[in-house]
Every structure is written in C-alpha cells, then in structure tokens.
Amino acid sequence: MSRILEVSGLSKHMGDSMALDGCSFSLESGRIVGLLGPNGAGKSTLLKTLAGVLRPDQGTVTLRGEPVTRRLRPRIAYMADHSLLPGEMKVETAVKWYRDLFPGASEPRLRQVAGGLPWDRKVSELSKGQAERLDLGMLLAREADVYLLDEPLGGVDPVERAHILNEVMAFLEEDRTVLMATHLVHDIEPILDDVLFLRGGRVILHEAAEEIRARYGRSVEEHYMAVFGGGTA
Amino acid sequence: MRALWKCCKWEFLQSELAGPGGILVLIFGLAYGWNAARSWNGNGVPVILSALLVFCTVLAVCRAMQWPYSGAFALERTSGRAAWQSIGGRVLCWALVLAAAAGIQQVFFRRCMDQIATIWPKLFADGADRVTRLAHWIGWRGFLSIWVMSLGVYILALTIALTAKSGVNRHRASLARAVGNAAAVTGMGWCIWWIFPLPLPLVGAGAVLIGLPLSGWLLEKKAE
Amino acid sequence: MRAVQFSASIPIYLQVMGDMKRDMAAGALPAGGRVDSVRALAARYGINLNTMQRACAELEREGLLVTRRGIGSFVTEDRERLEALREEMARGLAQAYLEGMAGLGFGRAEAEARLKREGEE
After folding, report:
1. CA A135, CA B108: separation in Å to the nearest integer?
2. What per-residue confidence (pLDDT) applies to C1?
C-alpha cells in the first residue's frame, strides 16, 4: 500500500472565515475513506479544493509524489453534491459531452451503469436517485487515481442507496482510492476502510474503521457522536 | 487543438441556435429581413435588417454571462482543460456565428441600398447625408467593423463574468451580481465614450485584443 | 445474497471470520472444498474488500483456509483441525450459556437441568 494523495497545510479563506485551516492528511491507495464532520466543517470545501474547483490560499496537494498541476487534474475525479451536468441536455447527449470532457471514460462501463436510465429524458427531469446513478456511473467509468464524492447518497431512498453502494463496491479495483464526504455514516459503515474527522477546517482524526471498533468498542457512527457530540469523548 | 474544437462544437450545440427554436428564428429572421429589404424604406430599416445580428449578439452575451456560474464550468475546471482552449473554443464559435449574421446583414443592406438612396433624400432634410453614413457600413470594411464590434461585446461580457468570479468576493459571486457589473461597466464605458468618442470599430477591436488574453489569464489563474 | 447483519461496534473482520468458521464447523463449507474469491465474498457479505482480505488472511493464519497460488482458496483438508474448530465453537457456545445463566442468577445445576429439559422437548 502506498501513499497516493498527500495534502499538506491546505488553507482557504471564504470571506472572513477560514474554511480550511492548515488541513493535512494522506491517503493510501486502494482505500475507501469516509470524510465526516458537522456542517460547516469544510468537507465540501476540501473536496472542491482537491478537485480544482477552488484554489487554495496555501498548502500543497501531491498525487503519487507529484504536485497536482493541470496535467494531473483528470487523475482526480470529482462528483459534487448536486449534478453539474447541463440540465437542458438529454441523458444521451450529456454522456457524450462528459466523454468529450474526460476522454478516459470507458464507453461500455458508461452504458452499463447508466443502462437503466431513460436516455431520451433531460437531465433536469431525472429523479434524484436517477441523477445520482448517472453522475456516479460516469465518474466511476473514468480511469482516475482518486475519486472524490460529495454526499453521494443525499436525498436518495434506501433502495436506491443500497444499489449505489453496491455499484461503488463493484467498480473499485485494488489500487483505487475513494474519499467520500457523507452524513449517512450508518449506511456506509460496512464499506469504509478509514475515516477522516474534519472540524473547523482541519483534520482531527484519521483512523481505520476497524481500529476504532477494536480500540473503542463502538461503531464509527457512535465514535462520531462521542467526538462531535460535545460530551466527553 | 482537439479540445478547442470540442469546446466550440459544444458551445454551439448548447446555445439556443442549435435547436429547432434556433432554426425557426433563423428562417423567420431571414424571411422578414429579405422582405424588409425589398419593400420597406423608412428610417428604421437598418435596425430591422440588423435584427438577426442583434439577436445573435444578445444570445452570445447571455451565454457568456451564465457560463462561469454553471455546473459545467466547475466540471470543466476539474478536467484539466487548458484555459486558452476553453476560451478559444467559445470565442471561435461565436466569431463564426456573428460573422454569418453580419454577413447576412450586409446582404440585406446591399439589397436595400438602391431604394434607400432614392427615397431618403426625399424623406429627410439631411437625407443624402444619412445615405452616405449608411453606405459607410457596407462593404468589406463595414462587415469587418461590425463583426469586430459584436465580437468585442461578447468578449467584454465574458471578461466581466470571469472577473466577478476572480475577485476577492468570488465565493459570493452570482449571476445577478455579474449582470449588475456588466450594466455598470456598460454605463461607465458609455460615459467615457461620450467624452472621448473613439471610432466604435476601434473600441471593439480593443475589447477583443485586451479581453481575449485577459479572460484567458483569469480563467487559468484566478477564477473559481 | 446472505442477509447477515453485522454489528458496527465490533470489528467486522472478526464477525465475518466467525460466520465462516460456523460454516466450516457445520460442513456448509466442506473440508477441502473451494471457497469463493475474496471479491465475491466481499460482495456477498456487503463489506469492504480490504476487510474481507483481512478476514481471509487471519483464517489462513489460523490454518483454516489454504490459498494455492493461481488456483484459489480452499478450506483446509485437515479434518483434525476442523474437529478442533467444532470443539472450540461448541465450548464457546456452552460457556456463553453458562455465563448467561449465571448472570440471571441461576445456579450451575439448575442451568444444566434446564438445558436437558429443553433438549427433550
């Protein structure tokens, strides 16, 4: 297992406050990492900064030891908490547009994941679950080193959620890394390797999920409650 | 280079021009303009004949202003696409569209000139003057001037939209604010032009030559 | 699809190991029989691949699983080892029962008697 993503001293102002404040951590390849924290902790900001949507004020991000420049950008795949696809496009057109933007996406995989979706319908007319499936499917069809997911399960019913999680599991190869920000800790517990707790724009905990279970004798969700609940941890 | 062409292609496909609505407008505009060129004579004729060009310019400006606020913009920034290809593709698309519209306008003007040359001196006291002024805009020089002016408007809109996304308050930037900025800049520009009336084609060329590299730089280095 | 619900408060790899051990002791995973790939197992249990790999690695360390490079994973053919596993699990169950009963306040003799009664019904 090697360090695939190293983040050091990442800082970002948003107006008057520091959304990210010297955020540092590293991810190992082939791990599914949950990014957890209360609202306003900086989860979305962190993912957007890693993806290149936002520019950090300070700090470095390296991928396999190299600083992330424009050339390496496509190796970090990002999915926002809402669909970034042009709403007026039909699903079929949107897929083509996405492929033109990210040439590495595999066509058979795209078709496989988006298979159950209505090709002719506009993106803005899809249900939340369908839009998630489309976004996620296109994301996972790409060849990238790190996959960043911002609240991929939000607002989706349990059946669809289980389906999406299965898809995440099925598509991950040995050396792919996923960093997933979510509030639904309970749902993703079984598939998490590691967890990152974020508060006030910095990492306050980075541990293996099994380590938390073994050491504290409680689930990640319970540990989260203990750490962020305001009581004694 | 491929990315530039793809940008151009998708900009066209995503604008309203590519759909059935666009084709309808084109046909209607052409028919209306042709009819006007053959049968109308009044003062408002040049305006009517320019309708297609005005429509395309307004469309281009709308596309430019909403682009940095769209999800597609954010997604494109994660793709590692070069700024010059992103900007270049879009500018190429609209340069071609506006050139076509300006070309059509030229055709209509030429068609109309004979009638205008005979009728305006009879309609207006300074009729002959007006005819000369209009004739000034016809021909290769006129075409290029008008094309550069409309392209300049587009690039100006693009630059303003990107500026709003690059400044100190960029995280609070919104389309509404950008439109406000554009209105302010237009107002200021108008005042300045009133004081120092440079020829409009020069202003347009200036907007293109300054705005193009500026928007490229903003997209590459500053915009979020 | 196995409907095993894992408690998230206990290391999942331990629970998976327990489940597989039960299958081995009961014969559902027969001696010398082939075991699915780690990926297939992870998918079936609905858990993380790395966690599944750890469970299998531990089972191998305990001598219950044998991996032959290029061929696959198999339950050990060592019947004595499997018998020992059955013994171990039976003892565990018995101890759990006795501890539970003691916790309820039942004496040892009462616990044994109840067990006999339950068995006869």
Report:
1. 47
2. 38
